[in-house]
Amino acid sequence: MLENRRVLAPLLIAPAVIFILLVVGVPFGWAIYLSMTDAIGGSLSGNFVGLDNFTNAWSDANFQKALRNTLIITFASQAIVLVGAAVISHYLIRDFRGKWFLRLLIILPWAAPVALGTLGWLWIFDSLFSVINWTLGHGLGIVDSTDPPQWLGRPNLALLSVIMVQAWRVLPFAVIIFLAGLASIPTEVDDASKIDGATGVKKLLYVTLPLQLPIALVALLFGIVFTAADFAVVYVLTQGGPFNSTQMLTTWSFQIGINSGSLGEGAAISLYLFPLLAVVSVAMLFFAKRAQVS
Amino acid sequence: MNQPLQGVRRKLPTYLVVVPFAVVLAFPFYWMLVTMFKEDLDLYNAENVPYVFNPLQWRFWESATTKHVEFLFEDTQYPNWIVNTAIVGIVVVAITLLFALPAGYALARLSGSWGQTAGIGIFLVYLIPPTLLFLPLSPVIARLGLQNSLLALILVYPSFTIPFATWLLMGFFKTIPQELEDAALVDGCSRIQALLRIVFPVSLPGILTVVIFAFSLCVNEFIYAFTFISSTENRTISSGVPNELIRGDVFFWQSLMAATLIPSIVLALLYNSFLDRFIKGFTGGAFR
């Protein structure tokens, strides 16, 4: 009986699917249920309150800022990531001396655990001993060293700092995915474009980038999920501050759901993330399919 | 002698692009490296050049100190966190392989066209992130009496390692020639025997890659480790270093940077060594 594919395949796949349903599907359903109750910290249920949590959360100015920040941080950082990855991977695909070492340096930010890499940035952005401010002040004399920029102390600069750190940590991942895409372009294309006289920037624009588009989109969609769903960067860097100006949906749902103990409303806030991720998922399915065909 | 030099000259544009990017991306790690060996007097003096050890001298190590690194290993729970992280990582990887090896194989070989769809479906689970699930999971973990136990992480982490590993393994299995298995089947092996004796040994490099990357996902994870475990000695590296080594407003920057740099370098070396295989598995799964 085990020789029969129709029996064997489901038998081998079932354990993984059942496990995933138990630890992802059930809690996800539970999050939806909780979001419609007045459950408080530590409890598994509460009274049904309909969509009150969603409307309450929405009417809070901090929530709206968190939603806006999630979108700004995600899209701004991913724009930087896409451009950077396209350029780096274009050159990194070739063979050259010292490639192994340079590639090691480039993937370091992705290899480092997020919370730890961000700690490094916390020290780089330090209010008194920031190495950036030393370089700009003592080194180049561009900023006043008695009153240097407070990277994490001013709302706009703090938001910019979060964007930089997100771009920094996702960029190596995008480079890896781009390299995978480049590696899958057949060498015939290379030869053909050489005969047609496409070289350098021309080749990049008209040959390489169009061929890379599907996998570049996959990298982008992943990057969006990684950034929009991230908690550690903002938590370690600013804890949502100053004055809640860098809260994201994830940190705000933690603030409300765990710190303030309003489990129901916290769940509702985190679920606002879902439409964004759902759109991304559907787009991903679509492009993965397209990539298969071509 | 002339050949390599000429090669370097021809590749000049490559270096002009790649080197600056590498320097910028790796700079925080250089900064960690310098910081972790600095004396307090050197570190907390805004007049000093921060990139080097002060007072500046040729024998630069004479201006540096290892005492903060020793402090990290001797007077904090850091060694415990390393052990905890290793335990969680190893157990989770074992569980992951147990579920993902059969599933990945079945999706690659046995299931035909709906297997492709199911494979993508499994991977989409990766898109329901821990930040959506930690709220409903945290009372469940408390109810199960797993609060503060590494078992909580061991139970939950496979939720993101299994989809990832299944996806990668599916890619690797597709690259193994079907003829190998057919030959084993003709020779009288059952399919399970063929799997254990032929397919898994041949795909060992791929499996090893999955082990490395699944392990690093566990080391990376923050929000579950942070919310499910609250006692200092049971923390993992990822949640222990930012939450326990900072006391109020006092930052032990040298020790913090040592705690940050060490796991990062180890993981980066592993990543870099397995990167080419990872790329092969990644494209094999999604786009072949």
Give an account of the 3D structure.
The complex is a heterodimer of chains A (294) and B (288). With 294 residues, chain A is an all-alpha fold. Chain A has a single domain, classed as MetI-like (MetI-like fold, Orthogonal Bundle). In chain A, 74% of the residues lie in helices and 0% in strands. Chain A is built from 13 helices and no strands. Chain A starts with a helix and ends with a helix. Helix content of chain B is 76%, strand content 1%. Chain B starts with a helix and ends with a helix. The chains are: A mainly alpha (294), B mainly alpha (288).
| Number of DSSP-assigned strands of chain A | 0
CATH architecture of the largest domain in chain B: Orthogonal Bundle
Helical amount of chain B:
over 70%
> Approximately how much beta-strand content do the residues of chain B carry?
under 5%
CATH topology of chain A: MetI-like fold
Number of helices of chain B: 15
Overall pLDDT of chain B: 85
Instruction: Count every helix of chain A, treating DSSP H or I runs of 4 or more residues as helices.
Output: 13
Query: How would you classify the helix and strand content of chain B by structural class?
Result: mainly alpha
What's the name of the CATH homologous superfamily of the largest domain in chain B?
MetI-like
Assembly category: heterodimer
In total, the number of strands of chain B is: 2
Topology as H/E string of chain A?
HHHHHHHHHHHHH
Total of domains of chain B: 2
Largest sheet of chain B: 2 strands, antiparallel
CATH topology of the largest domain in chain B: MetI-like fold
- At the first level of CATH, the class of chain A is Mainly Alpha
Question: What is the N-to-C succession of helices and strands of chain B?
Answer: HHHHHHHHHHHHHHEEH
How much helix is in the residues of chain A? Answer: over 70%
Whole-number count of domains of chain A: 1
Alpha-beta classification of chain A? mainly alpha
Quick overview of this protein structure:
The complex is a heterodimer of chains A (294) and B (288). By secondary structure, chain A is an all-alpha fold.
